[in-house]
């Protein structure tokens, strides 16, 4: 280690000597310098070449030579040493300071440009974040409806937010007349949710999922929609097999990523998804993997109805047996779990009711149920029948708890409670009444609705009201799109 | 899910032709010593020698290697996604229309600059205008997948216009960079040409120009005829090989697939597959994942987030 340090020290000294010698030579001993170099070369047999180091013995020789030199030459050599040092430092400053100044200028210019950019593009990030996937799915459905001829009073503004056409809805001039003329064209019942949510539903309920992605700029999408998607045969196929459908436009980032993931190079795209189990043969028999949701069939570009259905049928027949087995297995395991849960629940109920006499308990329960049934029959018998007179009804679509969709034409003058009663008596409790019988309202019974009707867009709960008529509610008249939400 | 386009050019004929044309045309022109024909300035080519045909061919090829490389990268990495969105036939028509509109615009600009400003504008050779017309469409129709926010608030002590110093960079950043290089590649002339192209793209995709792709419907039968011929050729070949069973390997493959089909009911049964269904079975052979959310390694996730 010390040897290395000595070597470095001597190298450094020799570097300065090499710089100094020609200067001193030029200043004092012009003829001596080549002699010294020549002598050292001769002594050590080192060829004179650029970058060659002088070794310690050379330095000693130099020191001896210097000791032999005069005081004037020593002074001159020191002077040149300082001069060289000043020169090197100045060189560093000359190079470094401009670079530093340039760096600062660039930095300031960058920040000025950045500030201008930020000033003009302040909302860019928020704009992207505000695009909720469920909202884009609804927007797609709305556009799809418009294209095939179904009318909607919900539209989106430039920011992609869904807005109701309140002017037309309130005036009731333009919409009513035209709305009645337009027949609702059948289309796949698209899920109003994000793609990931659709996958979650399909996995949870072990169902089939059909993903449809199109581009509104592509003419094939229009032809495919007219020839295949709105075709009754295709719709029946989907409905019969209980296939869920999710759709979107490729201009939305979610759909774009799906296309990239499944290597879709041509639109429109139809993909059929279901849970599949891969079986691999092993020495101990077939080993089944965990079920995973997979794309089992895809159609790219415009295809005829026959081709599409043929392909669908083929994929469905191939994968459905495995799916049915999975569903069966899931139902059994869930049944076992729920039975154990119900036993525990019953046991807890039993413990709680130990203090109450059983006869009183059963009487109370029976009386309450009887009164409720009586009330339901009475209420259903008093329901206002559907109104088909133009301009006198509100068209209300209700999505049921099981996912089905029902449409009613309710008298616009009837109260909102009438709508709740309709849902309670016909959808949630399918009560049968005899037309010729007169039903009485049960005494000492006050019926409470255990559900809410929620408007889809914007998401607003329609409050129960005996005074407010349907016509007065902007979300119900002239048309409404509601969802039933059971209270916990 | 990923923001990267599917690799290759499957079912993207226009992207293939464009890429080949961008490379092959300059190569042929160079071999045939035809580069001087692709120079254009109003004086002397038009004013003295009346060589109007130069306007017709000026957009056919790039003269510089860097421009060729940039155009190829942009087509292969970014613009081929537009073919998926717009459709092959439509994009073919748009290329033709943008070519014509840019041709007219270049002529008018060149003429105006020379006569009004007395500036003999050198027109660089290449489809700058067409590419920048599609740049507008790229911005309009291709969605942003992610946005990365670079926050300089703590770093910057010089804030001339406000407190927030954040820059949003999205996944199109690399595409923008490519277009920027193309924009400044030939200096002011390329900047002018690209601006004209972008403006033409804006007008076209806002339907403000008199002729759109629907005006070129007469070429539809020809296009369909051409594409049908091309798609039918490989199917016929593959079916011949399979049906004849001429090679030993084909027979062995059939035997294997039948065995697998018996042992595994979920395996695709190839025996009764129509020719039409071949495209989906290719999907498995390519190693594409059918799962909805294939597992990604941490490295892949980082790569997807920042590098694509």
UniProtKB/TrEMBL annotation, chain A:
<protein>
    <submittedName>
        <fullName>Ubx3 protein</fullName>
    </submittedName>
</protein>
<keyword id="KW-0812">Transmembrane</keyword>
<dbReference type="GO" id="GO:0005783">
    <property type="term" value="C:endoplasmic reticulum"/>
</dbReference>
<dbReference type="InterPro" id="IPR001012">
    <property type="entry name" value="UBX_dom"/>
</dbReference>
<feature type="domain" description="UBX">
    <location>
        <begin position="389"/>
        <end position="484"/>
    </location>
</feature>
<keyword id="KW-0175">Coiled coil</keyword>
<dbReference type="GO" id="GO:0036503">
    <property type="term" value="P:ERAD pathway"/>
</dbReference>
<dbReference type="InterPro" id="IPR029071">
    <property type="entry name" value="Ubiquitin-like_domsf"/>
</dbReference>
<dbReference type="InterPro" id="IPR036249">
    <property type="entry name" value="Thioredoxin-like_sf"/>
</dbReference>
<keyword id="KW-0472">Membrane</keyword>
<dbReference type="InterPro" id="IPR050730">
    <property type="entry name" value="UBX_domain-protein"/>
</dbReference>
<dbReference type="Pfam" id="PF00789">
    <property type="entry name" value="UBX"/>
</dbReference>
<dbReference type="GO" id="GO:0043130">
    <property type="term" value="F:ubiquitin binding"/>
</dbReference>
<dbReference type="InterPro" id="IPR006577">
    <property type="entry name" value="UAS"/>
</dbReference>
<keyword id="KW-1133">Transmembrane helix</keyword>
<feature type="transmembrane region" description="Helical">
    <location>
        <begin position="79"/>
        <end position="99"/>
    </location>
</feature>
TrEMBL record, chain B:
<keyword id="KW-0472">Membrane</keyword>
<dbReference type="InterPro" id="IPR035952">
    <property type="entry name" value="Rhomboid-like_sf"/>
</dbReference>
<feature type="compositionally biased region" description="Basic and acidic residues">
    <location>
        <begin position="285"/>
        <end position="294"/>
    </location>
</feature>
<dbReference type="GO" id="GO:0016020">
    <property type="term" value="C:membrane"/>
</dbReference>
<feature type="compositionally biased region" description="Polar residues">
    <location>
        <begin position="298"/>
        <end position="308"/>
    </location>
</feature>
<feature type="transmembrane region" description="Helical">
    <location>
        <begin position="179"/>
        <end position="205"/>
    </location>
</feature>
<feature type="transmembrane region" description="Helical">
    <location>
        <begin position="91"/>
        <end position="113"/>
    </location>
</feature>
<feature type="compositionally biased region" description="Polar residues">
    <location>
        <begin position="255"/>
        <end position="269"/>
    </location>
</feature>
<feature type="compositionally biased region" description="Acidic residues">
    <location>
        <begin position="272"/>
        <end position="284"/>
    </location>
</feature>
<protein>
    <submittedName>
        <fullName>Dsc2 protein</fullName>
    </submittedName>
</protein>
<keyword id="KW-0812">Transmembrane</keyword>
<feature type="region of interest" description="Disordered">
    <location>
        <begin position="244"/>
        <end position="308"/>
    </location>
</feature>
<feature type="transmembrane region" description="Helical">
    <location>
        <begin position="12"/>
        <end position="32"/>
    </location>
</feature>
<keyword id="KW-1133">Transmembrane helix</keyword>
